């Protein structure tokens, strides 16, 4: 099993919800993200689309970085945000666009 990515956010609540963090690390990152039926790149695309559509800015930030690390391009992420705007709404997409801008600027 691959080591889950480190997360300061998870570490901050580890003592508050230890079982939830255990499941996150062992099931979500240890099983789901490692399944071969979808590439990590594709899983990242699905994940950031859902996080954009459901307005989850805290989680989106980390997953946008992971999406870049998993091979998505800034252009593909930009196109996803534009596409999702028509299905999930402009406010959610604009929030995602601002978060993406911050991540893109940190990853020239």
UniProtKB/TrEMBL annotation:
Protein name (Swiss-Prot/TrEMBL): 4-carboxymuconolactone decarboxylase
Domain of life: Bacteria
UniProt-listed PANTHER family: 4-CARBOXYMUCONOLACTONE DECARBOXYLASE FAMILY PROTEIN (PTHR33570), BLL4600 PROTEIN (PTHR33570:SF9)
Carboxymuconolactone decarboxylase-like domain sequence ranges: 19-102
Matching Pfam families: CMD
InterPro entries noted in UniProt: 4CMD/NDH-1_regulator, AhpD-like, CMD-like
GO terms, molecular function: peroxiredoxin activity
Gene3D superfamilies: AhpD-like
Provenance organism: Rhodopila globiformis (Rhodopseudomonas globiformis)
């Amino acid at each position: 099993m691959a080591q889950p990515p480190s997360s300061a956010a998870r570490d901050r609540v580890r003592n508050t919800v230890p079982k939830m963090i255990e499941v996150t690390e062992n099931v979500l990152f240890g099983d789901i993200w490692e399944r071969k039926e979808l590439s990590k790149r594709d899983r990242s695309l699905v994940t950031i689309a859902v996080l954009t559509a459901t307005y989850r800015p805290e989680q989106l930030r980390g997953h946008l970085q992971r999406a870049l690390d998993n091979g998505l391009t800034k252009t593909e992420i930009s196109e996803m945000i534009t596409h999702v705007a028509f299905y999930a709404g402009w406010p959610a997409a604009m929030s995602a666009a601002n978060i993406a801008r911050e991540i893109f600027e940190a990853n020239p």
